[in-house]
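Appendix B. One record, verbatim.
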Amino acid sequence: MDALLPFASEVAELLKSREEKIAVGESSVGGLVSAALVAQPGASAFFLGATVIYTREAGRVLRDRSTLKLEGLEPLTPEFAQAMADGFKIQMGSDWATSEMGAAGPAGSPYGPEPGTAVVAVSGPVSRAKLIETGIGDRFQNMRLFGMAQLKLLAECLEEASA
């Protein structure tokens, strides 16, 4: 988690300065992004909550399908991640939301992508989604890299919205 803390600090300062709230959705990162954000002083001023949905079964139980527009979207695509972030933002009533899903390794995803593949997305005044391909199969390294990518994308969107 230490590698994520500088990015989380930047995000925390931007959210606090804007007096805005965030909800975080994670899968293969396993809660690292949420932990890095909650570790920031004053986290209660900006952090609403998070989910770590690791399996399809949990997703079916925990997601409010009425806010998700997933029909016709392939899992592990930027479009899917964006729809997840958009729906989670509505569900949580937050100013911002972020989502992540991927295949950390050593095996690939049941949806087809190889280990080292993830998608991250941000929903807010500036929304964006991105495909991440590390090309490596190391689970822990991919979890860190996916989490860093999620926080970096969030920081980029927050900075753009502040401009």
